Amino acid sequence: MENQVTNKAELKIVRQFKAPQSLVFNAYASREAFAEWWGPAGSKLTLLSFDFREGGRTHYKLDNGGMSMWALFRYQKIRQDDAIEFLSSFTDPEGNITSSPFPFDFPLEVHNSITLSEKDGITTLTLYAEPVNATPEQEKTFADLNASMNQGYEGTWGQLDAYLAKVQG
Predict the structure, then answer these.
(1) Phi and psi dihedrals of 99, rounded to 5?
(2) What CATH code is carried by the domain that includes residue 18?
(3) CA geometry: angle at 125 spanning 53 and 35, to 5°?
(4) Number of folded domains that form the chain
(5) Which residues contact 29 (CB under 8 A, 6 or more apart)?
(6) Is residue 6 a part of any domain in this protein?
(7) 43, 60, 98, 155: which could form a disulfide with 64 (CB 3.0–4.6 Å)?
(8) How many other CB atoms sit within 10 Å of the CB of residue 120?
(9) What local confidence, expressed as pLDDT, does residue 65 receive?
C-alpha cells in the first residue's frame, strides 16, 4: 500500500502564554474567565449557557459591528490541565446548528483539539481544527479561510494574554 498525500482542510495554530498551564486551562474551564476573553477582538460575548464537561455544551452570542452570530461548543474530551476537544458550530439563537452567517459555504461542524504543555512558566497552546462531515466545497472554504482564521485567533489570543496578565497580578 503506498502512502497518499492529501490536501486536507485543517488549521493549526501554536501560541505561547506567560502563565502556568493550569491557569490557561482554567481560562477555558471557568464561565467567568471564558466570558472575559473569548471571541474576536472588538466583539461582545454573551454566554447563553456554559457547561464545561465531557458531553456538555457552551452556547454563546457574539456581537460585532452591528452583526450578531451564535455559536456552540459541544465538548467531547477534557483532560484536566492538558487537553480539550470539542465540536464547534454556528447556530441560531436557540442553539440549533445552522450554516455560517457569512456569505460562503463553511462547514457545519469543526472538530477542535487544544493541547497544553508548560515549560519554565510558559504554556504552549496548540490548536488543531478540521471540518467534520464537510462537503468538498466546505473543505475548500475552510482551507481558503486559514489566513483569516489565524488573524481572528490572534485577536482572541491577545485578549487571553490580557486576561492571564490581569489574574496573575
Answers:
(1) -70, 165
(2) 3.30.530.20
(3) 50
(4) 1
(5) 52, 78
(6) no
(7) 43
(8) 4
(9) 87
- Collapsing DSSP to helix, strand or coil, 3 comes out as coil
How confident is the model at residue 2, as a pLDDT? 42
pLDDT of the residue at 169: 81
What is the rounded CA–CA span in Å between residue 90 and residue 158? 23
**Cα 23 versus chain centre, distance:** 17
The residue behind cell 486536507 is 8
Cα–Cα separations (whole angstroms), residue 165 to 32, 56, 156, 158, 162: 15, 28, 14, 11, 5
Residue 96 falls within a domain, yes or no? yes
Coil, helix or strand at residue 30: coil
Residues of the chain with pLDDT under 70: 1-7
Q: Which domain holds residue 137?
A: 11-168
- Contacts within 8 Å (CB) and 24+ apart, 135-139: 135/105, 137/105, 138/9, 138/105, 138/106, 138/107, 138/108, 139/8, 139/9, 139/107
